[in-house]
Amino acid sequence: MTPDGPTIVEAGRRLREGKTTAVALLESVLDVAQLTEAIVHAYLTIDREGAFASAAFADEELANGRDRGPLHGVPVALKDNMCTRGVETTAASQILGGYLPPYDATVVTRLRQAGAVIVGKTNLDEFAMGSSTENSAYGPTFNPWDVSRVPGGSSGGSAAAVAIGSALGALGSDTGGSIRQPAALTGLVGLKPTYGTVSRYGLIAFASSLDQIGPLTRTVEDAAVLLEAVWGHDPLDATSYDGAYPDPRAEMGRGVDGIRVGVVRELSGEGYEPEVETATANMVDRLAGEGAEVVEVSLPSFEIALSAYYLIAPAEASANLARFDGIRFGLRIPGPTTEALMSATRAEGFGPEVTRRILLGTYGLSAGYYEAFYGQAQKVRAAIRADLARVYTDVDVLVSPTSPTVAFEAGARVADPLAMYLSDICTIPSNLAGDPAVSVPIALDGRGLPIGFQVMAPALGETTLFRVAAEVERLAGFTARPVIDLVAS
Questions:
Q1: Whether the predicted pLDDT of 370 surpasses 60
Q2: What is the 3-state secondary structure (H, E, C) of the chain?
Q3: pTM for the model
């Protein structure tokens, strides 16, 4: 089976030309899900009843001349760490099994206001902690390009759904690369916007100073459409940016003539697959051929970004996950005392990776170790921001591979946390700095697996980011889609 569904922009055009309906679009993606879910496992929940009601209402509104914009009637998916009123939201954890939020996350509200049809909730690494979607309490997701391999993580379910066509677009969350890395491994466009531009209200927190919601789509233009629907100031989020927002599509199609492109020296070399480096270098050469000014830049702090991230993120997770105590909501394992109840609930409810990160974070915040670990990590974060501020005076964007490797085999890194963590070595710096970054598919390796190309920009630099990303997409001409042998599988 090869996916043949339209892009978001194409679907919107067909809807307005009367060539399809929202109900028909929904039926097509649900047909794909019915054929592939047993193999790929992209979804944790498919809300058929709610989705059909939304699709029928969208058709009625469009027929009566009410057009809510380019997402009106388009089926999209949500990572299952975004609260949806009355629909189970688990963050792929046993501790939240059966939890029905009494409210919608802000991004969900905005998607509904844009007329989008929400198909369901996608699988993820538990509490978004992972790079392969193998840490889910409800079973792993597999990569549609090769179902013996991972789709990346933690937004692997969202990526797999869009790649195989059981959604036309999806939202994920990116704490250390959890949108961009799975986008790279599944041949999609994945965007982490500037921190604070997309509300985190209703997002089940992992690391609050790093988490950011963003789109996974098949094209750069689709990513811009989905971003425009959900971003903007939100008074319900204390970290929401309250200022002028850039127009992501203002310069798309202008090419890269005169754009200054910095190639990050530290994001190459040992550990990077040769085909990934070759594809990246070829794209840099093609950008230069289109008039971009290409220079190599050095950001020494990037070499220790991974270490800083794995102190800051677990420390924040330790604080955020303290709310899951077996008393207020979710799983409850009875005990003779409140302490025993909390201990039993957390031991039963949290998986091994979440437990590992909570323990690591708690240790890093403990008396006598705070300054040596968490304090030092914050100094590294400041150094990364300073390095980037320095470099962005000389270049407009930075580029690198999105992931050092293509999709790896399922199970290959489960027993080696460090190898798993290294999957995010290219993406973590943008989270620590709060800057936007996007992954664009540019090639297939010799095994037919996608390779992603990362473009980074300074905070609120989405206009230039999308301009360069659109040119990368044009030059790559990447139109390949995954193929699943439904019989053999």
A1: yes
A2: CCCCCCCHHHHHHHHHCCCCCHHHHHHHHHHHHHHHHHHHCCEEEECHHHHHHHHHHHHHHHHCCCCCCCCCCCEEEEECCECECCECCCCCCHHHCCCCCCCCCHHHHHHHHCCCEEEEEECCCHHHCCCCCCCCCCCCCCECCECCECCCCCCHHHHHHHHHCCCCEEEEECCCCCCHHHHHHHCCEEEECCCCCECCCCECCCCCCCCCEEEEECCHHHHHHHHHHHECCCCCCCCCCCCCCCCCCCCCCCCCCCCEEEEECCCCCCCCCHHHHHHHHHHHHHHHHCCCEEEEECCHHHHHHHHHHHHHHHHHHHHHHHHCCCCCCCCCCCCCCHHHHHHHHHHHHCCHHHHHHHHHHHHHHCCCCCHHHHHHHHHHHHHHHHHHHHHCCCCCEEEEECCCCCCCECCCCCCCHHHHHHHHCCCHHHHHHCCCEEEEEEEECCCCCEEEEEEECCCCCHHHHHHHHHHHHHHHCCCCCCCCCCCCC
A3: 0.97
